[in-house]
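re: ur question from earlier - yeah i can do the single chain one, its not a big deal. heres the input i used so u can compare w yours
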Amino acid sequence: MSNCQEILTEQQEIVKPEIEIGTAMSKAPAYPTQAPPQGYAPPPGAPGYAPPAQPMQPPPYAAAGPPPPYNPHQWGPPGAAQPPQGAPPPQAPPGGYGYAPPGQTNVYIQPAAVPQVIMVTPAQKPGGPSMGYKATAAAGSALGGLVSLTGKGLNALAKGVEREINHAVDGSKVSHTLALFSTGNVLQLYSKVTQRALRVMPNGAVDALGGQEPGAQFIVTNCGSNQVILRNCANPAFHLAVVGGITTGTGNGTDKSSIFRLSETVSKFVTLESVLCRDHHVGIAQNGMVTAPGMTKKGPPAMFSVRLVYSPFGQVQRH
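and the output i got, formated as tokens:
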């Protein structure tokens, strides 16, 4: 038994260094170690971290503290030049700015925009509501005020549109009666009220008590679009015209006061409207005298029948 114990003891001594060698190898790192770069410091909590020898100093601005409250009566920093006399006080910064402590960001919050409201209400006037409307806008609206369109304005606008349409129709209308107003033709115009011819007196006055005399005859100059100039046969220097709100025979024939726009009625009568003065017509009263052109509408006082006296084209109409 003693020999066996000796043999086992020798075997254990031989195995023990092998175990120590394996243990030492297991503790060795799997990869070769490398020194950290120069200036590297482990972050807090990592192995090898050591607090700095001196405490960290706060940024320079931290000692300044929050800015002083806004003073509306202060102009610039202390010691700054004062504003000129009568200058407006300084304005406060827009809402949303505030002091942010060190380490935070000063954020500007855009204030919410105030919506603009536009109201449309009926316009009122004495005697009842009108046909127009008034549009009012809140402060800051692009309208910037009050806009009104009354019933009278609508009526005037409608009449203006109707007049332009009628003028366009008259200017393009073609008929046998209107064809008599060709350049060079000699015509007589008989009033529907007096049944007498329109004439120019030697003093330039106009009435509708004429007959077959040259003063009651006119030579036509057609300007196109049924617009004509009427020159008196008795005195070639006289032209029918509307001057200063009066129908006269002393027109010079060179301006718009001597130009008339023709309009034919359903019953083949014609009216003479001044091109210079809108809605001014040559009119005749019951006594044969001319009426105020501005007060004469397209009724019987303004209507004339046409008689052709002479035409350079050989057409003569006997009355």
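Helices lie at 2-27, 151-172, 176-179. not sure if urs matches, ping me
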